[in-house]
Amino acid sequence: MRNFLLGGVCAFALMGSVALFAAPSKVGGLQANETYRQLNLFGEIFERVRNDYYKETKDDELMEHAINGMLSSLDPYSIYMPPRSFQEARVQTRGEFGGLGIEVTQENGLIKVVSPIDDTPAQKAGILPGDLVTHLDGDPVMGKSLNESIEKMRGAPNTNIVLTVRRGAADAAKTFDVKITRAVIKTRVVRSRREGEFAYLRISSFNEHTTQDMVAAMDKLKAEMGPQLKGYIIDLRDNPGGLLDQAISVSDSFLNQGEIVSTRALRSTADEGQRYNAKRGDVADGKPIAVLINGGSASASEIVAGALQDHHRAVMVGSTTFGKGLVQTMIPLGEFGGMKLTTAGYFTPSGRSIDKVGITADVEAWNERDRQIAAALKERRQMTDQRQTEENKSDKDKQEPAEVTPPHQVSTPGQDGPDLVLQAAIEVLRAPPKPTARK
Q1: Which CA distances in Å does 338 have to 61, 79, 104, 123, 333?
Q2: d(CA 259, CA 278)
Q3: Residue 317 burial by CB count (10 A; 0-12/13-18/19+): exposed, middle or buried?
Q4: pLDDT tens, residue by residue, 52-95
Q5: Which of 336, 390, 299 is nearest to 114 (CA)?
Q6: How many Cα atoms are found within 13 Å in the side-chain-facing hemisphere of 260?
Q7: Staple partner for 359: which of 14, 48, 272, 321, CB 3.0–4.6 Å?
Q8: Which residues contact 333 (CB under 8 A, 6 or more apart)?
């Protein structure tokens, strides 16, 4: 069974260096001939490497690297997962897994942090969305597949790993080491408390239990607060996403009708995709809602934010989200593990694709942490088109590295000093502005 994440197989045998594949039929014409010619080229290179490379190689490792190369060239999110990695990925969506507690992708050969998960070693160490990891225990990640780097970050609980982190704009980036102790990650995805006359719910990720845990927390607060309950604050900051069906379910909890999200395969031969619509029933009983977002809000979080914003059901408070508008499908491959393949883009009810753009807040509000995240994400988005090489710069153009707060000094919102975004949301709920119209 496939799981859709805001996360046909052809097999062949390698039997010789030339003419490994049967001749194509006339169906497909020149394109099929070219494809088979390229496959034969791959077979020949494979044989050359296994026979003539100066060091001994293993066939299964060569094939895994070849598969990873194909998938990583598509986008940062499509990866092959060997059996152990595939099983751990499936366990993660059930709410418990081992490691650092960090959602990552790959960018320009480095590991890019999407978001740390609440109350995990990565978050406690001060890792921020948008950080780039360049080394793991002193070993460069450049040249390694995303899966290899993820495997290296995993390990037995109470063992340490040192991440070399680059933070800040390219011309003023600061690099530092962060020592993190691995742990068993038991994800408590919903936390709740009273904030004056409002119910505050923090959703840290979307696993199999998110909607039921959220509704249970809301019911408890309703019972405790009674008629004093005037509205809700849904905190999606630093939420890296998760299961598509849970994003839809959480959105549906606050909507009585209308489209929640649509997924579309962005290719001419694909079908029209799928639309998901809300059913009647609003667990918030029509009370006003403010949703907190920032640059660490990604994927499933952006589905929820986009749906509630487009239907004018909630006011977005904070800063622009990460911008991951692609849906991954978990595809089992039997004894070989599985793969996570990008199969569609998702669109908000008004038809917006938010990939690489994000959801913009109706009311901007910032903590210092959010500014650092936003600066890193802005730089990442501009890097491909605007980055100049050091060789092309004159000395007068070069800048001294700016001071960047090391991770242990960067607090989680509300842990050290006032949470200015939360305060803005409370003010919004007390005197709500008209949400921005979306067309």
Answers
A1: 16, 9, 18, 28, 5
A2: 6
A3: buried
A4: 999 999 999 999 889 988 998 898 889 898 887 787 776 665 55
A5: 299
A6: 25
A7: 321
A8: 9, 86, 339
C-alpha to C-alpha distances, 28 to 31, 39, 40, 339, nearest whole angstrom: 6, 15, 17, 27
Determine the Cα–Cα distance for residues 124 and 117; give it in Å rounded to an integer: 10
Residue among 88, 93, 206, 238 nearest 154 (CA): 88
- Known catalytic residues are 299, 310, 324
| 77 torsion bin: left (phi>0), alpha (psi -120 to 50), beta (else) | alpha
Contact criterion met (CB below 8 Å) for 47 and 15 = no
- Write down the pTM of the prediction: 0.69
The whole-angstrom separation of Cα 287 and Cα 282 is 9
Nearest Cα residue to 236 out of 358, 75, 372, 124: 358
The whole-angstrom distance between residue 50's C-alpha and the CA centroid of its chain comes to 36
Instruction: Give the residue among 423, 406, 316 at the shortest CA–CA distance from 367.
Output: 423
**187-206: string of b/e by CB count within 10 Å (b at 16+)?**
bebbebeebeebbbbbbbbb
Sorted by sequence, the CB contacts under 8 Å of residue 119 that are 6+ apart come out as 101, 188, 204
Q: What is the pLDDT of residue 378?
A: 76
CA dist list (Å): 88 to 1, 83, 387: 16, 9, 37
SS3 339: strand
Cα distances (angstroms) measured from residue 119 to each of 155, 176, 205, 328, 411: 18, 22, 12, 26, 12
Collapsing DSSP to helix, strand or coil, 404 comes out as: coil
Could you count the other beta carbons within 10 Å of the beta carbon of residue 140? 12
